[in-house]
Design brief:
The protein is α/β, with parallel strands linked by helices. Helices cover 25% and strands 27% of the residues. Strand 14 and strand 15 form a beta hairpin.
């Protein structure tokens, strides 16, 4: 297909999708229509909030549609047809896109996925990559097919996972990476470059299951290394936590405690050793750096100790 000036339908919902929308628009491609999920109630006050993509679309002056479903949706189908759009770009949209919509784009449908496929298909690829201790992840641009994240691929870009990366930090890196990639792809298509698709190798498929709030309960049988990965993976949601004297104590940042401790510590108990707040595990010790007690603000471990002496932390010495 020879295209002089590309026009785009953009489908996305969360913060992760915003950089792609911004960079496509900044590069001069006409985004004629944005699809995003309906406004939802969220936060402590359960107020109705616009999706990050809707907020950015309004700022950019792009028409926004928020259907509950795209299946048998004549309004959306006719709106797309009326716009005479060339390409559909999908980034964490969150709704199934039926064939009746996909068929409007003559095969020019590109999905930005936050992993190096076929590893980590599914809803939570960033969380699961960190949780598993992967040394790298990345972004894949692929075609949408009926099977979840199983479409042929056109572009891949690897991104290292550092020991400081949380899901929040890594998401920002990958969203920026995907945004640059999709603009590069659009430029190639605009020049008439032939698209070469690569099928995924089914032997190496892994699935990134959706994160459940129940996974946030810290398991004392896990090693310090595994727990550090989970703490980073589940930050900012749902946050790993322990029950501390009847309250939920979220662990925002922690590390393995490598110093020798000769005391006989009990698993599941918090201890203050000099300036270190320690959580004894069945095997090993976790040093808590930043925490958030239920109903309180996020604070350093030392500030937590100073402000909660009534909780009777067990003081031990070398």
């Amino acid at each position: 297909m020879s295209i002089k000036k590309l026009s785009v339908v953009f489908a996305g919902t969360p913060d992760f999708a915003v950089p792609a929308l911004e960079k496509i628009n900044l590069a001069g491609y006409e985004v004629k229509l944005v699809l995003t999920q309906p406004d939802r109630r969220s936060g402590r006050g359960m107020s109705i909030k616009k999706s990050p993509v809707k907020q950015k679309s309004i700022e950019l002056g792009i028409p926004v549609y928020q259907p509950e479903t795209l299946k048998n949706n004549a309004e959306i189908k006719n709106a797309i047809i009326a716009k005479h759009v060339d390409i559909l770009i999908v980034v964490a949209y969150g709704l199934m896109i039926p064939d009746e919509i996909l068929n409007l784009f003559d095969g020019h449908i590109y999905n930005i996925h936050a992993s190096i496929l076929p590893r980590w298909r599914g809803a939570a690829p960033i969380h699961r990559a960190i949780e598993a201790g992967d040394k790298e992840t990345g972004v894949t641009i692929m075609k949408i097919v009926k099977q979840l994240d199983a479409g042929p691929m056109i572009m891949k870009e690897k991104v290292p996972i550092t020991s400081k990366d949380t899901t929040e930090i890594l998401s920002k890196k990958l969203s920026e990476c995907g945004a640059l990639m999709i603009v590069s792809l659009l430029k190639e298509i605009e020049k008439g470059k032939i698209i070469k698709w690569e099928d995924q190798n089914e032997r190496y498929v892994t699935y990134a299951e959706k994160i459940k709030k129940s996974e946030s309960a810290l398991n004392l049988n896990d090693s310090p290394e595994v727990l550090c990965q989970k703490i980073r993976a589940f930050n900012p949601f749902p946050m790993m936590s322990i029950n501390f004297e009847g309250k939920n104590l979220k662990i925002v940042k922690a590390e393995k405690y490598n110093k020798e401790c000769k005391q006989n510590l009990l698993p599941g108990k918090l201890y203050l050793l000099e300036d270190d707040l320690l959580l004894k595990l069945v095997s090993g010790i976790l040093k808590l750096d930043i925490v958030r007690l239920e109903g309180k603000k996020t604070m350093t471990a030392l500030d937590f100790v100073k402000g909660h002496k009534v909780l009777n932390l067990n003081l031990v010495s070398q």
